[in-house]
């Protein structure tokens, strides 16, 4: 299986061209686990297939490193947009991608005639417990919801950005949070019927945040695009920050704008690292 390895702010993906490679009939969960393994595989946070679509320019299918399928992935969206353009699969600089979370629209950003990043229309956030999903009355929102882990209660805000997020603002430096200890316990709390991505954030100023993430199905990652959008949305909703903010992540920075029409725009890098051929023995 030929692939191309990419990252967006350190959140890394193996991208496979489903127009050329035989994807039908493949055990996607097993392929995801094997390819993403950092010792026995290529190593990545996710395996991403670019496929034909009936409703959009292309379809993007995202398999987390634990083999589960994600509805959406912000950082992969930027990487796929640039991959499609640079591999000559399209000459459009703005495409529509079909995802399990609906159509997503990335647009290449050019500086001095070269691609310098990608801006993505991530759609509208959703806040009802039934939409996130979180347990409790389906029509209710989820602001300041307590979750207790190892005797400490965290208060978080539930946001769906195509996939579920639980954003926790802390006064203490998020660089001190033991993500591998706390993250999985919140991810799998009974509050979240489809589990959740977990974001820990500090507000540095009204336009600048720091965020670290434990991703559902992938664990600690250096960045999460949907999670960064959820963090700025949760911060603006609770009066902590402006609707446009730069977010510092362990692997780089993303800029998020929550526009007046309720759509969220994410701008950040998309970088190809290497290409190769994987011997898929499954
Ligand atoms: N890293 C991603 C999100 C990938 C999916 C996530 N782990 C989930 O299962 O929801 C991003 O950049 O958004």
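^ structure tokens above, recovered residues below v
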């Amino acid at each position: 299986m030929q692939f191309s390895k990419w990252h967006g702010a350190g959140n890394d993906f193996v991208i496979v061209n489903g127009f050329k490679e035989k994807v039908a009939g493949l055990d996607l969960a097993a392929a995801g686990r094997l390819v993403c393994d950092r010792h026995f595989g290529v190593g990545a946070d996710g395996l991403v297939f670019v496929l034909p679509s009936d409703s959009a320019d292309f379809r993007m299918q995202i398999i987390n490193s634990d083999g589960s399928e994600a509805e959406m992935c912000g950082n992969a969206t930027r990487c796929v947009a640039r991959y499609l353009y640079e591999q000559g699969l399209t000459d459009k600089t703005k495409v529509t991608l079909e995802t399990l979370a609906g159509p997503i629209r990335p647009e290449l950003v050019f500086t001095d005639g070269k691609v310098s990043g990608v801006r993505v229309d991530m759609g509208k956030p959703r806040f009802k417990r039934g939409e996130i999903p979180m347990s409790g009355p389906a029509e209710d929102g989820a602001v300041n919801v307590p979750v207790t882990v190892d005797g400490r209660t965290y208060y978080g805000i539930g946001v769906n950005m195509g996939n579920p997020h639980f954003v926790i603002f802390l006064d203490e430096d998020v660089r001190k949070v033991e993500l591998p200890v706390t993250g999985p316990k919140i991810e799998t709390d009974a509050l979240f019927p489809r589990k959740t991505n977990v974001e820990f954030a500090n507000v540095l100023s009204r336009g600048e945040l720091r965020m670290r993430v434990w991703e559902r199905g992938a664990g600690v990652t250096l960045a999460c695009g949907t999670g960064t959008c959820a963090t700025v949305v949760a911060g603006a909703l609770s009066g902590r920050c402006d609707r446009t903010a730069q977010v510092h992540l362990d692997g780089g920075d993303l800029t998020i704008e929550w526009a007046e029409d309720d759509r969220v725009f994410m701008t950040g890098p998309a970088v190809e690292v290497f290409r190769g051929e994987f011997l898929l023995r499954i």
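Residues 2-121+269-277 form a domain with the Diaminopimelate Epimerase; Chain A, domain 1 fold (CATH 3.10.310.10).
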